[in-house]
Write a structure and sequence with these properties.
Blueprint lengths: L9 E4 L13 E5 L6 H11 L5 E4 L7 H6 L3 E3 L5 H13 L2
Parallel strand pairs: 1-2, 2-3, 3-4
């Protein structure tokens, strides 16, 4: 019997992200660096996922961390150690 694939726990999105990757993910990590329109990406994400389930890696020249937080997302300003991202992602995945 074929089984449908399980929903991913985490979706990691960068410059060429695919919205359908978010439909079943429990958590998204989005890197704003290099995105052509990061403000629009955040607006789109608010429709696809609950903002509290999205970690945003901020970058200079994109959306200010305060604006990211004001929209309900969790902002992780650079520079940030990858272990801090992983630790927070694990906490959020276990918190649902």
């Amino acid at each position: 019997m074929d089984r449908a694939p399980e929903a991913p726990d985490i979706a990691l999105l960068a410059a060429e992200w695919q919205p359908r990757a978010l439909l079943r993910a429990q958590l998204a990590i989005v890197d704003l660096k290099g995105l052509p329109n990061p403000g629009q990406v955040l607006s789109d994400l608010r429709i696809l996922m609950k903002p509290e389930r999205v970690l945003i890696l901020t970058a200079m020249g994109t959306v200010a961390p305060a604006d990211v937080k004001r929209q309900g997302f969790r902002a992780l300003p650079r520079p940030i150690a990858i272990k801090s991202v992983v630790r927070l992602a694990l906490q959020l995945c276990g918190a649902h």
